[in-house]
Specification:
alpha+beta; 6-stranded mixed sheet; 14 strands; about 40% helix; about 375 residues; elongated
């Protein structure tokens, strides 16, 4: 059927009008669409945290780590010995730095990276000097110390290893009565002079004199006062003697302080050790000889505030002339240096850790000069 021309024109006009209206709307949307999308994009970018705003928790943890190491002396000890516990493992807090750095890089947090500068600088200030070798060749006298271990399965082998170390003066701690004869026999050829006081002893290539036990308060209170001297001597853990050298007399102390304990009730319990450290510090303060060497298992690191009375008078041979931290315990995977060589009036030239024996401690040695 044919549509009249007039009617066909009207319909075409209606279609054109409808299309023109819709097309006009499309053209308006085409102009406003990108504008609205740009606004939405700007809002999203603006609401997204920038590099300085990312990782606030990481930044806070970095600052706390730095403050913890910087102000470790302010941590109270009355709360389960927390202060001493932190100071014992203080070098290991540096391991948190690369962990936090990895998190900061993953989060692309500039603030966290900047905050990490604090613990890095504090750690380097405390321990950076230990990373270099400060030893010097040659020395006048070599001293060594070893906690041989009460449960040592091979005391004869330990004696052979220590005799081969070349030390002029050798201190032993934690000798049992059963193993004492083995050490005396194994060390007799290399060391013509020796003294044993309770569970500690000193072997020397040079003459000894003025030997006496040192009271480190193993027994306190009314019960301790009732024990006779011969009973106390059986478990005495410190001595003082004089080594006659070509440069004059050298006062040598050997000590084995009480162990520390970690338990849920008391926390890091150090009372007996701290009492012994104070007594040892007083004995050294009363020492008239200006040249002093302290050898022994002190059951603590020299960062621990409990040893302030000792470290204020003596300096660590490892810190002065060693290479690295010189960790000694446990022998299978050392995490702390609790076996010490401390000196006064002589110059440490070198300090090192000897090879493992049958003990759970590693032996330590140092070269000293006048």
């Amino acid at each position: 059927m044919r549509i009249p021309s007039a009617e066909r024109g009207v319909r075409v006009a209606q279609v054109d009008t409808a299309e023109t209206g819709q097309g006009g709307a499309d053209r308006r949307d085409t102009g406003s669409g990108p504008w609205r999308a740009g606004i939405r994009r700007a809002i999203r970018i603006g609401s997204r945290p920038g590099p300085w705003k990312r990782g606030p928790v990481l930044a806070a943890l970095a600052l706390l780590l730095g403050l913890l190491m910087l102000l470790h002396v302010k941590i109270p000890n009355r709360i389960g010995g927390l202060g001493s516990l932190v100071e014992t493992f203080l070098p290991w807090f540096g391991l948190f730095i690369p962990v936090l750095l990895a998190g900061a890089l993953w989060r692309r947090s500039v603030s966290a990276v900047v905050a990490l500068l604090l613990p890095v600088m504090v750690w380097l200030h405390l321990f950076g000097a230990l990373l270099s070798d400060k030893s010097q060749p040659g020395s006048d006298l070599t001293v060594a110390s070893h906690n041989v271990g009460a449960d040592n399965p091979d005391p004869a082998g330990t004696a052979r290893d220590l005799a081969a170390s070349g030390a002029d003066v050798l201190a032993l701690q934690e000798m049992t009565e059963q193993a004492r004869g083995t050490y005396e026999k194994g060390l007799a050829k290399a060391y013509p002079y020796h003294t044993v006081q309770g569970t500690v002893g000193l072997w020397s290539k040079l003459p000894l004199s003025d030997t006496q036990p040192v009271d480190i308060k193993m027994d306190v209170g009314p019960l301790g006062d009732t024990k006779p001297a011969e009973v106390k001597m059986a478990y005495n853990r410190a001595l003082r003697t004089t080594v006659t050298t070509g440069h004059g007399p050298l006062a040598v102390y050997v000590a084995h302080l009480r162990s520390v304990r970690v338990n849920p009730r008391a926390g890091y319990w150090t009372d007996s050790r701290d009492r012994g450290a104070q007594a040892l510090g007083k004995a050294i303060a009363a020492e008239r000889n200006e040249r002093v060497v302290l050898l022994g298992d002190l059951n603590g690191t020299m960062d621990d505030r409990a040893f302030d009375g000792i470290t204020s008078q003596l300096r660590s041979a490892q810190n002065t002339a060693g290479d690295g931290f010189g960790f000694t315990w446990p022998a299978s995977f050392p995490v702390a240096r609790i076996d010490q060589i401390l000196v006064r009036g002589v110059e440490p030239e070198s300090s090192w850790v000897l090879s493992a024996t049958g003990s759970d401690h590693l032996p330590v040695a140092a070269g000293i000069s006048w």
